[in-house]
Amino acid sequence: MASGGEGAGARAGAGGDLYGLLKAFEGRAAVVAGVGKDPVNEPMIRHWCEAMGDTGPAYSGPGAIAPATMLQVWTMGGLSGHAGRSAAYDELLALLDGAGYTSVVATDCEQEYARDLRPGDRITFDAVIESVSERKTTKLGTGYFVTTRMDVRAEGEPAGTHRFRILKYAPTARGRRNGGKRPRPVVNRDNAGFWEGVAGHRLLIQRCGGCGALRFPWLPGCGDCGSPRWDTVEASGAGTVFSYVVMHHPAFPAFDPPYAVGLIELAEGVRIVGNVVGVPYDKVRIGMRVQVEFLRVDGEWELPVFRVAEDGGGGEGGGG
Ligand SMILES: [Zn+2]
């Protein structure tokens, strides 16, 4: 790594040269003269408000404005991407990859709003690599925070700023060591009872103490009536495949693709995600009858999975 490393600005110690190279990206363009693919428009506002459950009166009818938090929406490139993207951001990420900081996680974003956006406003934007942090150690691993700032304009006027931060990091030794094992479930005080049930080979569903609604996954309060009171009912374990996906890619170290992941509708009416076993991945069909069983994982803990019933049932007939 050449360049004037002898100067007072050179950083001593491991990573010092890399940090200098990374800092040189600050201020470089990430997107130049980007153009929103659609002007601000009522259908996208309506879809957003429906998805968010936002019934604010400002977002519909004559004189409607877009929710301010939609700022980034108007800049998104969709599946085909954007033409105005510069090479600098990709170069920065490649530099970090090459130095072993191969993992990435989005950490946070901040927005500032300068102007209401209204249907018909045409959006343009530029983005710049605003800052690269010093090397930091987090629970995920050691790496660098990269902050990108996007300046959004509507009809040429400043509309707002969107800052987006990622951590590019080298996974911790603990993470790598776990590479061949299944990820363990996150057990917390809200779902501990579920996993205690699984350990005793019981599939437990929460039942609201206010309105009696059953719910899964486990949550601290009822989505129907808001009550924090609940008890449990034990599921029979019988269900049907409500939907499924077959995982081909990406390959996680603990899994052997392709494999089927089912969304199982239990006889009690709630749905749960789990592996479908007992038939090849390409024989899983919607409507198949399944029964829970408990799979011992890595000799250490257990997981509910769903075995297709003898007669299969439903779908196109379970497997020839
Ligand atoms: Zn309730």
From TrEMBL:
Residues covered by the FAS1-like dehydratase domain: 35-158
Pfam families given in the database record: FAS1_DH_region, OB_ChsH2_C, zf-ChsH2
Start and end residues of each ChsH2 C-terminal OB-fold domain: 233-294
Domain of life assignment: Bacteria
ChsH2 rubredoxin-like zinc ribbon domain mapped to chain residues: 195-230
PANTHER family referenced in this protein's UniProt entry, alphabetically: BLR3430 PROTEIN
Protein name as annotated: DNA-binding protein
Organism: Streptomyces agglomeratus
